[in-house]
């Protein structure tokens, strides 16, 4: 094959650098902001965007019916993630803001704020330094599809959306026990979350809007709106049952908001299967290689092939095989790297098993820039291992491995 038609050899360090530094996601976020804001001067805008370096700060929305625990969970997430809580109440309470003053007027009259005004308040708040640097958590906003669409067009794109859910009857009952600490804004409950300190107990107040009929009306409004909002966020939302202890809801929410979504970045799987002898590494490797068109790299097999081919490395390895001694790590690494550096492994990706077998070998693999991006440990009880290995049969012609019990049953 002449040089002009040979596949371009992509050094493995290129895709690995892109993955390790999330270059694709960084460029994708910047492109998104450019298209949303369409700045007159794109280059200064991009420089400013990159200097903000806030692609990975929390950008969370907590939705749910009344009494589901939105505010409770949002407050706990804010504390844990050191981020900023945005609620209708604290947005309109903002001082020295004509927008907020206008919104307070509406809220005092109708106990609600017009959607367009609320979204402008959010936009104003998110431009502030603390939200840019430490992210934000929106509690119960957007309330309608129209608000969600306006928020999106303003470039306010959440990274995670938590949707709490619980039966209406549970929520109506639960809301009756809601109590608020007027000093700290903390939320408690007469049954599920009563403060131990008598000083706090004595100053708790009963919030408005928690009576059965009021909660039932809010539930109707919520159910009417939520079914029109959720389709706008197909890939970034998680529904969590709020009909369980607060702490359990919180940890499920925290786990979710701390995961990164699968990005559209080009991804070359470099899979490592670890596990004791007989745990099924070879079998799973063959299945993964077939399903995802990966190169199946069995370290033991590579060494045997080198010896069988009488290659330069094979001649060095053979004496170790004959004496049934472990082949030195540096020689194993040379054979392995020779295989992993081949175009098929770089372009298709690989599933490696039988190496590393210890920490020194793992460090050698890491230093050789063949870092796996998916690692699985096959954990099998000892008695199963013993049964499998004793029942293992290998086809001397193909090298295929079988289980005598499964063969007998075949
Ligand atoms: N029941 C059962 N048997 C399995 C499974 N995976 C593998 N085996 C059998 O267990 C034996 C060992 O499987 P292998 O895939 O060779 O295990 P391995 O981890 O590659 O073993 P080594 O290469 O020696 O470390 C074979 O006889 C397989 O047929 C499994 O998931 N369930
Ligand atoms: N998972 C839960 N189990 C029991 N009570 C809860 C739970 N989540 C919240 N609460 C209580 O229910 C009441 C309403 O919680 P709140 O966070 O204000 O809900 P929302 O903001 O969704 O209206 C509060 O008294 C709170 O302590």
UniProtKB/TrEMBL annotation:
Enzyme Commission number(s) from the entry: 2.7.4.3, 2.7.4.6
A GO CC term assigned to this protein in UniProt: cytosol
Domain of life: Eukaryota
Subcellular location: Cytoplasm, Cytosol
Pfam families for this protein: ADK
MF (Gene Ontology): AMP kinase activity; ATP binding; nucleoside diphosphate kinase activity
Annotated function: Nucleoside monophosphate (NMP) kinase that catalyzes the reversible transfer of the terminal phosphate group between nucleoside triphosphates and monophosphates. Has highest activity toward AMP, and weaker activity toward dAMP, CMP and dCMP. Also displays broad nucleoside diphosphate kinase activity.
Similarity section: Belongs to the adenylate kinase family.
Protein name: Adenylate kinase 8
Lineage of producing organism: Eukaryota, Metazoa, Chordata, Craniata, Vertebrata
């Amino acid at each position: 094959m002449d040089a002009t038609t040979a596949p371009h050899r992509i050094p493995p360090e290129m895709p690995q650098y892109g993955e390790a530094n999330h270059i694709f996601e960084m460029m994708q976020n910047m492109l998104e902001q450019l298209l949303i804001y369409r700045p007159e001067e794109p280059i200064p805008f991009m420089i400013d965007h990159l200097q903000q370096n806030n692609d990975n700060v929390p950008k969370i929305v907590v939705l749910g019916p009344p009494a589901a625990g939105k505010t409770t969970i949002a407050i706990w997430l804010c504390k844990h993630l050191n981020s900023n809580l945005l609620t209708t109440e604290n947005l309109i309470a903002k001082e020295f803001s004509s927008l907020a003053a206008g919104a307070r007027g509406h809220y005092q009259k109708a106990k609600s704020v017009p959607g367009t005004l609320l979204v402008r308040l959010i936009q104003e708040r998110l431009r502030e330094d603390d939200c840019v640097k430490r992210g934000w958590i929106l509690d119960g906003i957007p309330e309608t599809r129209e608000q969600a669409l306006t928020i999106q067009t303003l470039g306010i794109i959440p990274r995670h959306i938590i949707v709490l859910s619980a039966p209406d009857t549970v929520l109506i009952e639960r809301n009756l026990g809601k109590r608020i600490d007027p000093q700290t804004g903390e939320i408690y409950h007469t049954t599920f979350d009563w403060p131990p300190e008598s000083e706090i107990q004595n100053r708790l107040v009963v919030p408005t809007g928690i009576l059965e009929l009021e909660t039932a009306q809010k539930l109707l409004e919520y159910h009417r709106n939520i079914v029109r909002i959720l389709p706008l966020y197909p890939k970034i939302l998680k529904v969590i049952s709020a009909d369980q202890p607060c702490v359990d809801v919180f940890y499920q929410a925290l786990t979710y908001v701390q995961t990164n979504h699968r990005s559209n970045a080009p991804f070359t799987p470099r899979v490592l299967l670890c596990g004791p002898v007989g745990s099924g590494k070879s079998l799973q490797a063959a299945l993964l290689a077939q399903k995802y068109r990966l190169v199946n790299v069995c370290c033991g097999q590579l060494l045997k092939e080198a010896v069988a081919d009488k290659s330069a490395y094979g001649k060095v390895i053979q004496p170790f095989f004959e004496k049934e001694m472990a082949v030195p790590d540096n020689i194993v690494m040379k054979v392995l790297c020779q295989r992993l550096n081949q175009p098929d492994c770089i372009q298709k990706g690989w599933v490696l098993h039988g190496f590393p077998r210890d920490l020194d070998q793992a460090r050698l693999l890491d230093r050789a820039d063949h870092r796996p991006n998916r690692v699985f440990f096959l954990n099998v009880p000892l008695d199963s291992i013993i049964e499998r290995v004793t029942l293992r049969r290998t086809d001397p012609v193909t090298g295929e491995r079988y289980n005598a019990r499964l063969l007998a049953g075949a």
